[in-house]
Specification:
Layout: H1 2-14, E1 20-22, H2 23-31, E2 39-41, E3 52-56, H3 58-68, E4 75-79, E5 89-90, H4 94-102, E6 106-117, E7 128-129, E8 132-137, E9 144-150, E10 153-160, E11 162-166, H5 174-177, E12 189-195, E13 205-208, E14 213-218, E15 224-228, E16 231-235, E17 241-255, H6 260-268
Parallel strand pairs: 1-2, 3-4, 4-5
Antiparallel strand pairs: 6-7, 6-17, 8-11, 8-15, 9-10, 9-14, 11-12, 12-13, 14-17, 15-16
Length: 285
């Protein structure tokens, strides 16, 4: 992996891009014995950067969006992982994409974020997520109870392993694995998806994203887990969790030829006839 990253950095230099390394990333390269002479930056500070490039899978891109924060810095994902819904440039196309990037051959796509507001602000300034905010049981096998209100109106009490509030971008992530619907990223919605609910008639619910979701959490233990994309924290207070659309967005860089519908068909194997796959072991003998 370090060799691939080093090659990509060299390609960026060759395309005339002025490259800086995020400090934690540079530290990782040093541990891999792949040090670099590039200057270091802290993405949490406004240092006049034009773009952030994420090298890795969708998880790396989510981390990059978290570091960029409210600055609105565009983010391009080069996919070194597997699935790659968000990191849209595949490694084999990276050279051409970097050349086009240097010539301004790209567009920006606005993606909505959700933010968490509660007493004490345990996540500090990084209290937002691109995919989802989720609440989970912790320290016990028992379900947790979540009382959900929408703009102050009672929606439902969920007895479940947890609850997800996902953005349209996050509809292809954790929410999808829990039975949530796919939502077009440009729609102004949120998806409330229970995780292993006790009541089988409870289903995911799509709401307008101007609606504020307020959760009251009850557990048999004192602890429960809150995740903002890949960042998690155990909480033990009883203050309400307020989840709402953030007043700022993430800006994803899209190269020419990117098409969401192509991505969905490819990643989810839509239209693939499984009957044309390999036959049973032993063939027709």
């Amino acid at each position: 992996m370090a060799q691939v990253v080093t090659s990509l950095l060299a390609e960026m230099d060759a395309c005339g891009l002025r490259v800086y390394l995020h400090e934690p990333f540079a530290a990782w390269m040093a541990r891999m014995d792949a040090g670099s002479a590039h200057s270091l930056v802290d993405l949490r500070q406004d240092q006049g950067l034009s773009m952030a490039i994420s090298l890795g899978g969708d998880g790396a891109l989510l981390d990059t969006v978290a570091w960029v924060g409210r600055a609105g810095l565009p983010v391009l994902g080069i996919n070194l992982g597997r699935l790659g819904f968000l990191s849209s440039v595949h490694l084999e196309n990276a050279k051409a994409a970097l050349a086009a990037l240097a010539q301004g051959g790209f567009t920006l796509e606005e993606r909505s974020l959700v933010e968490l507001v509660n007493e004490g602000q345990p996540f500090g300034e990084m209290n937002f997520a691109l995919n989802e905010i989720s609440v989970h049981k912790r320290d016990t096998s028992s379900m947790i109870t979540l009382h959900a209100h929408l703009n102050g109106r009672f929606l439902n009490t969920y007895w479940a392993d947890g609850l997800i509030v996902a953005t349209p971008t996050g509809s292809t992530a954790y929410s999808l694995s829990c039975g949530g619907p796919l939502v077009d990223p440009s729609s102004r919605t949120l998806v409330i998806t229970p995780i292993s609910p006790h009541n089988l008639n409870v289903r995911p619910f799509v709401i307008p994203d101007h609606v504020e979701v307020r959760l009251q959490v009850e557990t048999r233990s004192d602890n429960y887990l809150v995740n903002l994309d890949s960042r998690g924290m155990t909480l033990n207070d009883r203050s309400d969790l307020v989840i709402r659309r953030a007043p700022y967005t993430a800006r994803l860089v899209r190269m020419a030829g990117f098409d969401l519908l192509d991505t969905l068909r490819a990643k989810l194997a839509w239209g693939m006839d499984i009957r044309s796959g390999p036959g049973p072991i032993g063939g027709n003998d």
